[in-house]
Amino acid sequence: MDQAEEVSHAATWRHAGVDDLDAIMNIQSVVHDLLPERREVIADKLRHYGDGCLVLCGRDGIVLGYGLSHPWRLDEAPALDTIMSRIPDDSDCLFVHDVALLPAARGKGASKAFVERIRTLARRDRLSALALVSVYGTTTIWAALGFELRPVPAMAAKLAAYGETARYMVAVVDARAD
Fold first, then answer.
1. From residue 171, how far is each of 8, 49, 87, 142 by CA, in Å?
2. What is the reported pTM?
3. φ and ψ at 112, to 5 degrees?
4. pLDDT at position 178, please?
5. Architecture per CATH, 6-172
């Protein structure tokens, strides 16, 4: 197991599958009760870009968290709870749609391991950046993982749907291998 997959001796990231949808929806109901998305929206992300959809599993195989990402356009954010018709042909970033961890999995390096893994994925796919919308006042956490605030006035209305603390953030992906 490489460092990007290892969170601690107790939990690892693995690719998510359709069989993980119940666990993902249960975690979403705990972590994102203010920003819920329909099951078919999550399934759509798995279908369009399975490589960027991961679940965090404890040693016992229980899913403790999930991370969803997919290619997108820099300085844009997909609408919440919306099925993508397709991934844009001119995608230039890997959009971190959601990272949700149960309280027991927090503070153990899981988010860092997820970001390292998708950073490698972005390099593989020749995407120049990682982008996300920070919610619930988590900008400090994302900044510690290499993301910087990026004001995009044209996104103000879309960000409002993510809540009043929503902030767009970007991390440049170094094209060099790890």
1. 24, 20, 20, 9
2. 0.91
3. -60, -45
4. 52
5. 3-Layer(aba) Sandwich (3.40)
- The reported pLDDT for the residue numbered 164 is 92
> Quick one: DSSP state of residue 52?
G
Residue-wise pLDDT for 128-143, tens only, equals 999 999 999 999 999 9
Three-class DSSP category at 40 = helix
Counting as low any pLDDT under 50, the low residues of the chain are: 1-8
| pLDDT reported for residue 85 | 86
Strand partners, 12: 6, 57
Q: In what order do the strands lie in the sheet with 148-149?
A: 6-8, 11-15, 53-58, 63-72, 93-101, 129-134, 167-172, 148-149
Write down the pLDDT at residue 175: 72
User: CB-based contacts of 71: which residues, under 8 Å, 6+ apart?
Assistant: 49, 52, 87, 88, 91, 93, 94, 95, 125, 127
Confidence (pLDDT) at 167 = 97
CB 46 within 8 A of CB 84: no
Rounded-to-integer distance, Cα 77 and Cα 131, Å: 8
Kindly list the distances between the CA atom of residue 3 and the CA atoms of 6, 35, 115, in Å, as whole numbers in the listed order. 5, 31, 12
Q: Which two structure tokens, joined as six digits, stand for 42?
A: 């999550």
Structural domain boundaries in the chain: 6-172
Close Cβ partners of 139 (under 8 Å, ≥ 6 residues apart)? 147, 149, 167, 169
Phi (first) and psi of residue 27, to 5 degrees:
-65, -40
